[in-house]
Amino acid sequence: MLSDIEISRQSPCLPVTLLAERLGIDPAHLSPQGHHMAKLDPALLGQGKPRAGKLVLVSAITPTPLGEGKTVTTIGLAMGLNKLGESCIATLRQPSLGPVFGVKGGAAGGGFAQVVPMEAMNLHLTGDFHAISAAHNLAAAALDARLFHERRLGDQFTATTGLARLEIDPARILWPRTLDINDRALRHITVGLGGELDGVPRADSFVITAASELMAILALARDLRDLRARIGRIQLALNDQGEPITAEQLEVAGAMTVLLKEALKPTLMQTTEQTPVLVHAGPFANIAHGNSSVIADRLALHLADYVVTEAGFGSDMGLEKFFNIKCRQSGLAADAVVLVATVRGLKANSGQVNLIPGQPLPASLQQEDLPTLQLGCANLVWHIHNARRYGVPVVVALNRFPSDSEAELEMVLAAARAAGAEAALSQAFTQGGAGATELARAVVMACQRTKPPVGESQRLYPDTLPLAAKLATLVECGYGGRGILLSEQAKAQLAALSAAGWDHLPVCIAKTPLSLSHNPSLKGVPTDFELPIRSLTLCAGAGFVYALTGPVMTMPGLGTLPAYRHIDIDESGDIVGLS
Amino acid sequence: MLSDIEISRQSPCLPVTLLAERLGIDPAHLSPQGHHMAKLDPALLGQGKPRAGKLVLVSAITPTPLGEGKTVTTIGLAMGLNKLGESCIATLRQPSLGPVFGVKGGAAGGGFAQVVPMEAMNLHLTGDFHAISAAHNLAAAALDARLFHERRLGDQFTATTGLARLEIDPARILWPRTLDINDRALRHITVGLGGELDGVPRADSFVITAASELMAILALARDLRDLRARIGRIQLALNDQGEPITAEQLEVAGAMTVLLKEALKPTLMQTTEQTPVLVHAGPFANIAHGNSSVIADRLALHLADYVVTEAGFGSDMGLEKFFNIKCRQSGLAADAVVLVATVRGLKANSGQVNLIPGQPLPASLQQEDLPTLQLGCANLVWHIHNARRYGVPVVVALNRFPSDSEAELEMVLAAARAAGAEAALSQAFTQGGAGATELARAVVMACQRTKPPVGESQRLYPDTLPLAAKLATLVECGYGGRGILLSEQAKAQLAALSAAGWDHLPVCIAKTPLSLSHNPSLKGVPTDFELPIRSLTLCAGAGFVYALTGPVMTMPGLGTLPAYRHIDIDESGDIVGLS
């Protein structure tokens, strides 16, 4: 089979103006970025007759290091729907540069189910992530500069500047700095060293851009005005009295918004089969909600009959956050859920298989092993029940691999159907959309079954429930655990958040994606666990409170043999080494 | 008069496809970025009949805090040439985001001589600076990751990875990190703190993106292949034996080049009068050469009869580096030099006027003061002689201000002519191209007088002169000083550079732009000085050695009342506060 970059290059790519014309987009709302990409202006939402398309969410079983092919299936399903004659747009998160150069060497799907041009998708795209970094770091610089000038000018600060003192507490600055890179050396740093003109020394850190609250804000904002208001609400630091200092108070919210004005527009691209794709935002799926943007979904629903979007990790993570955070804020509802599973991934979820990085795959994964697969199917069944809890039909997409036996495939399909889901094979990686028509048909049937969305029925908890009760509900109903175990710090933080009037926000739990619990070694369907909650953090701009169950890596590192070593230009100036 | 942003918004902007069509650009070489900007592929250099235009370099008298309007005059001259019926393209450096939010609130010219859309020019443009930051920081992360993994794995490193040890000396890492922001707190930092999995602790620093060697490399590269080769030569660190470690050895040069592939293409824009502009790169004019890119100049010379380009600071700085670094590497030559002067700027160069930030301007600058102006004219005469040294005709552009008297204007024009220059008033700020036709006519006449360029005659020194002799020649002939005063460190570094075979490179002196000497308080035409040279730094990728005469600010800070406070979106979503 050809390499990803070879397939990408030989796929006939429509001029983006033609792609937009087919979607009925007025050129006034299209800002071309080269010949094959364009920024789409959300202003078009007010124009023309909306299609009011069906929204299909793609989630997955508990992920494994093997990779279940969720992005490939998302792209393949969109192409499969096209093959059936349905108008369809996929909405995807933008890949981060960090993993491209660190581990993966690319993240635009794979095989015959890719977004093209894959080089653009993997490298900068239209600059949104860099714009987020710039806006984020402007706020950080503004904060440190204000701290510095207030200290340097002392009593004279207000007389000299006409500004009120903010009295920023350097020990309680809540806003890190950010870069879209894997750089472990920036995880813990000291800034402001050098001398009395070089700032105020303090401990600081960098997070990767996907972990910036601005990324979550961009993904959740309804429009430019909402973006501006959310940025104004961001709490950057506490003052000496422990009161929050917002971006509005620092007078930096307007400039941050201006830096994000173009980034608020999703990027129109296409798949290897010319199915339109909107790429926009890429928030983490642990400390943030792990979904592409509200604006992209709304634009796509306006322009097509089917919109296929993808959420991060398994259904306990990105799907739960899709319903309880994204849909709650956007007012949108899903018409169907697709759960991606693989035979290998289910075996790895059985608890019987020991995957060791760098070692050959265990025999069970390379040949038929029905007993192990049977155990693993419990995980699939759990995710089906979990998704059905939100009142939507579920379709299992079984992503077929060459090592799968017919009996194994049949076992998974039967287990899915027995649990109340539709089920179909997907072979998009090797066959493109033609390999996903069976899946597409199942999705169309599922969407026809949907009752009209009824808002609150697609939520685990109402806004009015206090934060602690929301956390407990999420663990009991969303993870299948026994409840929460709050640290003393978390208890104090919950009381403070409640007192400050933030109880109405949804919660976002950051836990391992590799288990339904907080413990990655608990495979399958653990139930006998209490989820330890160490601390809580308010994201006033994004509009949720996230809870940490343990350390979360917000700045990855480069491994010993990083992917960048093989990325280069060849003799003709073409890029090599992305996949 | 209208504000800059109002003038920008009401200027009729041609679709970039039409602008390109007028220049005879094949659409295959044009990558639209929105409707009013496009990336221009250097591949077009091999296509069609080149115009072999005349190259006009815009420099200035010794700059003052008043601002002499060099960018306004550059844009105005290009528009003035258009008014005369000549085809003309201006090539400009891209503004840095740092000063936009720090001091100026914008840097795209001003009044009726602006690049439009000015919001795009001032904010991200097409993302080149962010791409440079990303490529720069990838190398920094790669360096720290390799240091970390070699230490962590110890003797097992090679057995585990198959890679030879680089033995990076953490105390001699030559490559900082970079961001396009004014952030004093990042000037001196400690990275790698936190714990044994979070990198190797060491002192580090951030520089602003314009100070990255990659910025100078982008500005000097001939094409993608040359870019790749230059990046490979960058010396990132020394090993434990004091030997250089290059980006090639770290295997990161290919990935860095890939990140810069689109940034290598200049951005086509236009002025308020639809004169084409190529915006590309923006290296510092102290530790780098302070000129826009070789590729942009070559593309513009291919497409137009006149190309107007701008160099940083006064003729002792950007102009000297234009001839001795940029032209030496590119093989291009200038046909004429324009020196921008103002009555106020010359008075401020007299040594008789004391400008205090935040205080009202001295009376001499607000009313006629011929004796002070007479003293200041010596600075203009020096710059004329300095520019004529390179064998090109000189035209003084006297940028008129409302406070200038007729007698003052006449005195400057007469002094310029007496020193062997053409001279003309420029009123581009208030009148656009119509205010610069007299200047444009003088430039056309000057270009007609030019003898064919003769390469070495436009250099102060030959390649073959040793580095120390180049420095001495530059100070004696380029600054009018008595010679150089080398620190012990500088002597040792010169000996080491010579021994390592770098004597063939040109030199780049980083000194204050506010005096011809290294001492900003020596106004007018100081001659009795020796230039102290503290240290030397090899830029093996950019292809020069820079000399520090004192501390150079490579990371600016935000002031007490930064410009970002007034930048915002208004009710209709338009940007306000840029100027």
From TrEMBL, chains A, B:
GO-annotated biological processes: tetrahydrofolate interconversion
Family affiliation: Belongs to the formate--tetrahydrofolate ligase family.
Gene field: fhs
InterPro entries: Formate_THF_ligase, Formate_THF_ligase_CS, P-loop_NTPase
Organism expressing this protein natively: Aeromonas molluscorum 848
Recorded metabolic or biological pathway in which this protein acts: One-carbon metabolism; tetrahydrofolate interconversion
Keywords, sorted A to Z: ATP-binding, Ligase, Nucleotide-binding, One-carbon metabolism
Molecular functions per Gene Ontology: ATP binding; formate-tetrahydrofolate ligase activity
Pfam families, sorted: FTHFS (PF01268)
Catalytic activity: (6S)-5,6,7,8-tetrahydrofolate + formate + ATP = (6R)-10-formyltetrahydrofolate + ADP + phosphate
EC number(s) reported in the record: 6.3.4.3
Protein name: Formate--tetrahydrofolate ligase
SUPFAM superfamilies (UniProt xref): P-loop containing nucleoside triphosphate hydrolases
Binding-site residues for ATP, renumbered to this chain: 64-71
Membrane spanning residue stretches: none
